[in-house]
Amino acid sequence: MSKPQLIDYIIISTEDLIRCKLINLKIMNKHNDVKKNGWAKKLTILFLSIFCIQLVSFAKDKPNSKFEGVQIGTITYSYRSMPDQSLPAILEYIVQSGINSVELMGEPVEEYAGIPKSRDREVLKKWRTSASMDIFKEVRKMFDNKGVEIHILKLGNHTWSDEEIDYAFNVAKVLGAKGISMEISEEAAKRMEPFAEKHQLYVIFHNHFQPADPKFSFDKILAYGPMIMLNFDAGHYYGVTGLNPCDLIQRLHERIISIHIKDKTGPKAVEPNKNVEFGKGETPIKEMLQLIKKNKWPIYCDIELEYEIPQGSDAVKEVIKCVDYCRKALME
What we know:
- There is one protein chain.
- This protein has helices at 6-11, 15-30, 38-60, 87-96, 106-113, 121-128, 134-146, 162-175, 186-199, 218-222, 234-241, 245-252, 285-295, 315-331, and strands spanning 66-67, 70-75, 101-105, 149-154, 179-183, 202-206, 228-233, 256-261, 263-264, 275-276, 300-303.
- With 332 residues, it is of the alpha/beta class.
- The protein has 2 domains: 6-60; 66-331, Divalent-metal-dependent TIM barrel enzymes (TIM Barrel, Alpha-Beta Barrel).
- The strands form 2 sheets. Strands 1, 2, 3, 4, 5, 6, 7, 8 and 11 form a 9-stranded mixed sheet that branches.
- It is globular.
- It starts with 5 loop residues before the first helix and ends with a helix.
């Protein structure tokens, strides 16, 4: 079998090209007399060929980081060290990294929308509860035009007022996200689940070092309701427990929207729980990706760049390396 080229991932995986083929079949079935009419058949084929070429040309201009059926993305926190932290600049970093799906941090979104530069909770609350969704529709269009999906919006806190939580879910809905993400806790699960039910969007909980606590339980969090999902940070999980994250993914895959992919040392290493470049740590990244690929689970695998950036490099270059590492892991 010949080695797949990058163009295979850009073209063959596009829904538009599949749709193009379906249109071809429908037209050919509808016009049964085409076989008897040579010029009509040629004209039909010519039209479809031009249509497909246009779609393929359009697709080639868009980033695509879905490999072997597994969506590789990133959380935009990965670009925190880049000089320009405006939303348009962050979008360009994503595109330069070749990524087409992200967990988007809420701060640059709100800054783009014009939130006051204030630490006064009441000032911020007043703005959020009166903000028009039109500006967020503009954000959605901006990302769509670049071919980037926002699958999660990291916005909100369980300590916010009811009106502010509604606002966070409304923004997520406008952006096309599957839900909003925040730090995991029982208190947050109890508070947020009714809002997730109300808006029919997920509240997606992210873990740091909580699994190191013997009293902590993902199951206890998930038991608060079906609209609670996990943004499972496999690196942090392995770094503090030393347990293989594949076992938890296997057991809870139906409740995992996304996984934060990073490489870390384990708790018993000389430098325990340390972020390192992909391939230099102990986190079973390849095993996780292969598990998701094998089972065809619709789990977003988001790179979170947390290791120290080497001298002479930058976050975009490092994210590109991480994407390539994941691509190669999935091709094995």
